[in-house]
Structures are given as structure tokens and as C-alpha cells.
Amino acid sequence: MATRSQLLKGVLDACVMAVVEAEPVYGYELSQKLQKMGLPDISDGTIYPVLLRLQKNGFIRGEMRPSQSGPNRKYYFLTDTGKEELEQIADEWQLIAVPVSELLKRSEG
What value, to the nearest 5°, has the Cα angle with vertex 85 and ends 12 and 75? Predict the structure, then answer.
């Protein structure tokens, strides 16, 4: 579990930006979407600091919108800078993920 958590920490920003790129979401909804994608260890307490950091870096922006069930919610949108950053991360990820996967396959057999 600790290993998974450490590995995820390195790519969580990219995962969050990828979800936000697909459609604007609010924090709790983002957490639920990540969990449905197979990342059950992502809690609300983990998501909000990531959102704040991404917003400070100019990769996402927040906008308050009315909610049909309760108070207004802050929805997050990917900025143009965020799209560029996500594309760069995705490219770098491929350069790392493919060889690491190959190396780990070799060590299994």
C-alpha cells in the first residue's frame, strides 16, 4: 500500500488534470471519478491540496456554480497552460512507463 501511494503521488497531478480536461468537475465529484477509474486510495483530503496547487500554478481555474442539491460548488476547468502541461506530462510518462513496464516484466520471468 505504501509503495502504491508513493507511485501515485508522482502522477496524481496529471490524473487530476486529465479528469478536469474531460469535463469540469467539483472536488468530491473528481474524487469519485478517480475512484471509479481504479484509484480507490484517493480521498477528498488528498484531492483538495492537489487542486489548490494546480490552481496556484495556473494549470486549472475554479468557478463557483449553482448546485441543484445544496450550496454552490466550485467547478474546476483546465487552462490552456494546463493543457500544455498535461500534454508534456503524458509524453514524459510514455518515455518512462514503457521501459519500466518492460524491465518489470523481465524481472517476473
Answer: 65
